[in-house]
Amino acid sequence: MIYALLGIAAAFCAFIQWGDEIPLPHGDVNKKEAKYIHNVQKQEEKQTYEKKILARNPSGYMTVEEYEQLSTPKDRMSMEIEVPKIPTPADMVYVPQPSYKIVKYNNPAGSAEISINKTFYQRRQQNAQGIVSPDFTKLVYPALYYYPNSGSTACDLFVINLEDAKSNKDKILTANTIHRLSDPILSTEKTIDNYNTFRTLTPVDFSTDGTKLLAKEKIGNTKDGIWKTIPVVYDFNNNISYSLIEVRAAIVYYWERYKNVDLDEKRWDLYPLGFDASNPDWVIVNALAYTGSTPINLGIWKVKYTGEQSQLVTFNKEEIQISMNGYKLVKDGVEPPSVTEDEEKHLKRIEKENAKIKKQQEKQELKDLKNSYKSKLKEMDTEFKESQKDYQLRQKIQGSTTGNDALEKYQEIKQQQEEKRLQLLEKQKQKELKELEKTK
């Protein structure tokens, strides 16, 4: 019984080994492999072509490599920000558009103040009115922060470099916080240990040459009012700030020494007015005491922008001349309906023309992609045919010769083929020249 089973197993193995043979490949294996690689390369080229067409209108799907490439950090200063367009309702023919004009920022002198919006305490941040330098190259604005846990407020002063190739009004209108310099030029203390305290920075004015900015830091409490105001000057040439707190000490000393009045026991403060018109290195401030219903003038003082040499100038504000150098935008009414309607018609014509140009560009782009794809396939086919002919020639020579004779024979035949190709090109050139002569 065992021998019978062994015989059946042997017969089955013989059937598997000889009855189900794997067919051997027919023809030249190298040529088939080369043709297979060629077809794979053509398929890859087709996929690349189709991918370029789909990439014109991104669907949102992308590879990890594409995502990482698109998510790399970008330079905020070079980004272009498109001004949002407010859609006009279909049932409205005319929508009033505000008009703006450029005016002096520090007019009257020392009047610049921060106006806090009603939504400040809900949004916990606000960008206040900015000041533009005399040469319209930069805009400085305060950024306010609210901390609800302590009810306190802090502030930073940021700089936005304005664009060059625009009018002065458009420079200001298109200024965007995304283009601001990353680090503030001035900052207040941001500790939140004192409840309801506020610290704000308000730009007062630029110097005549725009190299220095005068600001005032106000420190106080929302329940108790302003405690004190400190003038601060920022020097753009040296990127350094100067706190003019010494002028406060000079005012206290003067009134205690010559008037026998202790201002430390009084409620008083000073107001930076601007830069001296006759000498931009001096800052003018006005000190006032609040001892009754009417504030008492403590004098007009001047101090060096570095915080040195505080001096009493006068008690009459009209005797001093203060320069007004910075600018700001204010609303100046609304545009006439005819202007808005003509602009709307003009924009519609431009949009229609742009849509037509865009359609032509897309059509031409698709055509160029297709022609490039066909040209690439034609080039690949030509190279493949040449490589196959070259391979057949090598095989033919190796079958009929031996040793170094095969290489010499191959080089000889290739040289003859090259000479024949050049002769054909020369004939074609001569033919084209004759046709050109006939045309002339």
Describe this protein's structure:
The chain has 440 residues and is an alpha+beta fold. The protein folds into 3 domains: 98-334, no CATH class; 336-371; 394-440. It is 40% helix and 24% strand. The protein has helices at 2-19, 29-55, 64-70, 120-123, 168-173, 246-258, 337-400, 405-439, and strands spanning 98-104, 125-127, 131-132, 138-147, 152-161, 186-187, 197-206, 212-221, 225-235, 240-243, 268-275, 282-289, 296-304, 311-314, 327-334. The strands form 4 sheets. Strands 2, 3, 4, 5 and 6 form a 5-stranded antiparallel sheet that branches. Strands 7-8-9-10 form a 4-stranded antiparallel sheet, with no helix packed on it. A 4-stranded antiparallel sheet has the order 11-12-13-14, covered by helices on one side. The N and C termini lie far apart (103 Å). Residues 1-6 and 8-25 have low confidence and may be disordered.
